[in-house]
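TL;DR need structure tokens for one chain.
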Amino acid sequence: GTDSCLTSPVVFHARADMIPGSSNQYLCGLEVSGPVMAETYKVAVLGPVPRDHITTHEGTVVDKYGCGLNSVAALSALMGGRGEIALVTHVRQVDHRPILEILARFPDADPAHVTCEQDMGDVITLKHLDEERREERQTAFMNPIVPDDLEGLLDADAFVCVPVTDFEIARETLAHIKAHGQGLVILSAHGQTRACTRRGERQPKFWIDRDLWLPHVDILQMNLEEARCCWYGKEYTPHQLQAMEFDSQLPLDEMIKLARHCLDRGVKAVYVTLSEAGCAVYFKNEAGEVRENFVKAVPVEHVVDTTGAVEAFAGGLAFGYLKTGDFLQAARYANAMGAQRCTGTDIAIFKSLADTDRQIADSYPP
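>> reply
TL;DR here they are.
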């Protein structure tokens, strides 16, 4: 049968206008350059919870719910179940109860903004060709998250926006947050650089309206393939477009140009994940100069399933910045949670804050 959808609001407090530009570009002995806050926060996670059918690169078949749940699980583990996490999403009615049952495993996860009234939600099939590449098909589609979905949430400390397809979060929603809230806005570029064809094929796309989004984003997260979709020319020949199919990643020497473009339009920091190499972090120092920093990866002994690592990274990034006020320290938490996600298939794979801090200390010795 169908489930009724919960509608009671959750109230969520940090200030995006307090974001500092860290002046330290090194990876050891980092100093906190911004406000240090308590270790529990109110966070809204915006994005789909797809019903995923996954074939891992090792051939294992996994059926599970993903995306936004991974951000919730990572944040809950880091806050010891004592935070306030609102998952804002729309799902199929058949998926509503199973998703609520998963959320019930996390005592600080509020289900009030998981709605099924329109009976629309994502269904995605993923076949991993290796640890990095995968074939994707989408056969059901979530109705977009709009400003009305954020009722009662505008005083959140952070808004973690993790769309996987370009229609899932309306730009007006981020504009609404900026106009009426003060929380940190983190956006994964994964959704804005992925389109779904009429045949259900999920394909990369240029993020042509990028500059209309940037003023509403504090932290922008992407990988090198998504960066390629964010940094495009005025005009291409057919041969140049075809060549991108074989050279789909933006070269790092071009990445700083993209980062500068974003930072000049209001973004405070850009994070580019580099797989086993960790991530690159771009921000402006106090003198207004763009700094490029590389934070090495937290090692993973055996990769089981990389699905959800993007969303786990975003959750770790939000917590890390709220905790330390430092873009590079935040990268360590993001790397740690992304790495933890890859070690298994269960949603509750993430370590506690104490264990994560030990993992970070081991990965980044003084």
